[in-house]
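User: Could you check the structure of this?
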Amino acid sequence: MTASAFSLSDPSDELLSLAEVGRILGATRMTVHRMAVAGQFEGAYQGPPRKNWQIPRTSAERVAVEWSRRISTGAAAAMLGVGTDKFRELLRTGLLTRHRYSPDPISIDEVQHLIDTDALTDPVHRGRIPTRQAAQALGLNPNTLSHLAGADRIPATRDRHGRW
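Assistant: Sure, the predicted structure tokens are below.
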């Protein structure tokens, strides 16, 4: 970001270095750098060329609170009562989102939403398999199967990433 993006944040907010934010998050300096480049810190900016990032304390604390609401993939699978394969399917189909850079990549709120809405027993999601597995079962090339799905020749839905 540019220095002008910083002017949108509170001028009285303390600016922290990557190492200081890393201590707050329990993350490495490189992880914090990647997060800053990805725009995960509101009001963060990088000084003149090749200078260190400056991140507002409030933004770092907001990310720390978000991280506290995340759990490991194993804990999420246990909450849902599903095995590893089913859990990976939930990630592939877009029912769960794996968050980048966090030590625990699954939002507990997303898991709780799946439990509350009975999405796992919803007929739309029950029995869905990825294109590659379906192609193997049918003895087809995955590209051929995708073309058939696109032409409505077989029942299929797209996930949030546009994959069949």
